[in-house]
Design brief:
This protein has helices at 23-31, 48-53, 64-67, 104-114, 136-155, 171-187, 205-216, 226-229, 260-264, 325-344, 352-364, and strands at 5-8, 35-39, 57-59, 73-75, 90-93, 117-120, 197-200, 222-224, 243-246, 274-277, 303-307, 310-315. Helix 5 runs parallel beside helix 6 (171-187). Strand 2 (35-39), helix 2 and strand 3 form a beta-alpha-beta unit. It has 2 domains: 5-123 and 325-364, Rossmann fold; 136-322, NAD(P)-binding Rossmann-like Domain (Rossmann fold), CATH 3.40.50.720. The strands form 2 sheets. The protein has a 6-stranded parallel beta sheet, sandwiched between helices. A 6-stranded mixed beta sheet has the order 8-7-9-10-12-11. With 365 residues, it is of the alpha/beta class.
Amino acid sequence: MEKVILWLRDEVKAFEYRSALSPKSAEILIQKGVQVVVEKSMVRIFDDQLYADVGCQLVEAGSWKTQAPKEAYILGLKELEEQSTPLKHKHIYFAHAYKNQTGSDKLLQRFKRGGGELLDLEYLVSEKGKRVAAFGYWAGFVGAAVGLEILLKQFLSQDLKKYQLTSYKTKEHFLEHLKGLLKQVEAKKIPVSSIKTLVIGADGRCGTGATDLLKSVNLQPSLWGQKETKGRGLFTEILEHDLLLNCVFIKSRIPPFLNEDFLNQQSSGYKLKVISDVSCDPTGPYNPLPLYSKESTFQKPIHFLPYTNANLYLTAVDHLPSVLPKESSSDFSSQLLGPLASFLAGEDKGGVFARASKRFKEKTC
């Protein structure tokens, strides 16, 4: 009987340092009889040698396109290169293709033409619909940290036009950086207690991460859930905060939290200075913050939004956990390991991958 092949591809998205599979998880899969092939990477947080040391076969980056057997499962995190080539393999990654996002139709057609299949990581869910593996906590944690960093630099009158994101070895390194900025702000006679922050979607993984970050630097955020937002929109209450963190997961259309007309109508100005849109779905039809049309990036993380009586800074990076790649990757890989091992063994306990397969077939029928 031939071994099942799991092929970890190199990431092509700029500044994507994370991995869906840690060397530790790879070793466990190998012990269970899976053949793990790992593409070499110049940017992955885990060194290639760490995979080789536990028995993985190392191959060249991008070689899955021509060298991977058709029956291999291709594992990644973020999107593939934008090409027209038919896709013949079963791919496991975050495709962002089921909510009418830009380019989603073309991607699904590539799978359809090639006879391949998308097992989207976002749709690996339990019987109750809960994600079995997610970066949500770290997205919220980093989204809050980045939003706060931008806000503090504003208070310090620092030039943000050349501001870029960087990755940190540990969350402690990032926290020390933020605490240093807070001390500088306090030295300017701006008390930390006067900084008002708001987390929308506070009950979820993402919101929990954002809340934990803010509390770790002694900020006490306002926390909103469905109770505060259901059936409403265009919230003047949001404008009473310095920093807004959008951490909601939306499955259907809702009234926007803010929009351009609403902001331009605020003749007396407002407190809001920075928006960190952690949910980051600018091209989706359910975006509750229709203030921008594309994601920001590590190199240019800020959208400068000039409105009447205020200048808003908005950041919306769709791979925030790459700021803390080691911790976020290790956490995600450990969450994914159980369901993935079960699936590769031909069991798929709980039908996690079967549900993802069903979703793909519904979208491509």
